[in-house]
Amino acid sequence: MELLLKGNKFFSFFHYFGEISLIDLIAIIVLFILWLKFKNYRGMLFVILTIPIGRLINHFVKEWVARPQPEIADQMASYSFPSGHAMMELLYLFTIAYLLSELTKNHKSKLWYWIGALVLAILTGLSRVAEKNHFATDVMAGV
Fold it and tell me: Is 85 noted as a catalytic residue in this protein?
């Protein structure tokens, strides 16, 4: 799989959706919307617990497995397994899909929220392999 994806520029754009700074910004925006517009405290608690706990789990698994990053020139400081981008992307996109699904009664809309979240999460995971930042097994484990 790595051979098929390495250097594929199409996937490079999608790695931005898994950046921690973007995930944190989106989580803060979602929290404010849930608080100010919907007074959805259960949803706020869900967001508050999902993102940090996911990040903690990812950190502990990386330290436990201690698999080095692929051999790349600008080696990253952390370990490779599991992919944090893939894991955090899936967590926050599925959290948003869940929250949006709660707001609508239209089953087609609910389905499209989940399909969109899944497709974007897959593309982000593939971007990590295409950019040679992770092995395919790192991404699969992150998901």
Answer: yes
Report residue 75's pLDDT band, with 50, 70 and 90 as the boundaries: low
Cα gap 35→42, rounded to integer Å: 10
Average pLDDT over residues 115-120: 93
In angstroms, the Cα distances linking 72 to 19, 69, 82, 85, 122 are: 19, 8, 17, 17, 22
pLDDT of residue 54: 86
What pLDDT does residue 77 have?
64
The alpha-helical segments, DSSP class H, found in the chain are: 2-5, 9-12, 20-36, 41-65, 84-103, 107-130, 136-142
Is 107 a catalytic site residue?
no
| Nearest to 27, CA basis, from 51, 4, 7 | 51
